[in-house]
Amino acid sequence: MNNYFATVSRGLEEVAVRELENIGAKDVRPDFTGVHFKGDKATLYKANLWTRTSFRILMPIARVKSFTGDELYKSVQKIDWDEYLEPDMTLAVTCTGKSKHLNHTHFTALQIKNSITDWQKQRGGKRSSVDTENPDLLINAHIDQKHCILSLDSSGSSLHRRGYRPAIGAAPMKETLASALIELSEWTPDLPFLDPMCGSGTLPIEAALKGLNIAPGLYRDFGFQTWLDYDDKLWQSLIKEAESQQKTDINVPIIGSDRNLQVIRQAFVNAENSGLEDYVKFARQELINVEPPADKGVLICNPPYGVRLGNEAELGELYKLLGDIFKQRFKGWTAYIFTGSMKLSKQVGLRTSKRVKLYNGAIPCTLLKYEMY
């Protein structure tokens, strides 16, 4: 078994643990903004194909000394790069973390890239060229005090990019976060789902993907597909298995609405791109006119909170309106508000039954649960 590491948004570590255990990962252990786990090559492929909340799946290959840039350069040259890289393959290096002597991630990445390509030239005269957009091998370096953890990035582009969303709103929620909110809401496909402030439709679309058991990575490419040990036969078998597990129907409504006609049009495009136009309903509708489509269900919304959209002083009435609508029309429902402003959340005027601390990028946020009896 190999060691792997899934990177996640802060606060979602335990959600990612459950996802990885569900696909058969072993020795799953949460860390800060990530989860360690073990498994075979199929586990690596399935983690990319099935996890809805992870950003990247990394395969650590070495932990080397890196007190200075020179020491890092020499340490990287001790690795047998022929195991991972051929001269005709393209290469890119990304870096996170800093130390006293390695405090610029671009310099650190460049030092590692130079060490690898110099190692290649010393052995055969040919070296890999750099492709920062779509490399054959993407290396992730993480500086941890006096050491550097080198990993192969099996995902390529971030896993939040499902491939269905060219159309986005002004302050889009990442698909990984949307999926995590749905998981934390404990929504199940036998309950109606509503987002009355849906923007470009990410929450309803992610709910439909989950409800139909569609693997989120089914329609995109991954970094491991250009690795030297890529097993296409294994990958195709996992794709076929995922397709066979899809459901063909959801017997409850999944609805998104928004007052902005432009973003609702974007939501329609995103639903079509994901093949879910028959399963998700979108409508332009003012919040004050929203009505429940059934006598019970789950409502999740992500109203503006004055950081990227709106002015906090002007948003109090919006939060008060949400509370009034929940109380007057949504008895029997469980409602959630995801917000970065606890000051505004007080305007809802309802008692929460649960609060979950999360992050939207670097913004501290809270998922507030309201049980409407």
Quick take:
It holds the Pfam family RlmL_1st. The protein has 373 residues and is α/β, with parallel strands linked by helices.
Could you explain the architecture of this structure?
- One of its GO terms (molecular function) is rRNA (guanine-N7-)-methyltransferase activity.
- The protein has helices spanning 13-22, 41-50, 69-76, 105-124, 175-184, 202-211, 232-244, 261-273, 312-329, 342-345, and strands at residues 2-8, 26-31, 34-39, 54-65, 91-96, 137-144, 147-153, 193-195, 254-258, 281-284, 297-301, 333-339, 354-360, 363-371.
- By secondary structure, the chain is an alpha/beta fold.
- The chain folds into 2 domains: 2-153, 2-Layer Sandwich (VC0802-like); 175-214 and 247-371, Rossmann fold.
- It has a 7-stranded mixed sheet. It has a 7-stranded mixed sheet with strand order 10-9-8-11-12-14-13.
- Helix 3 packs parallel to helix 4.
- It is elongated, with a radius of gyration of 23 Å.
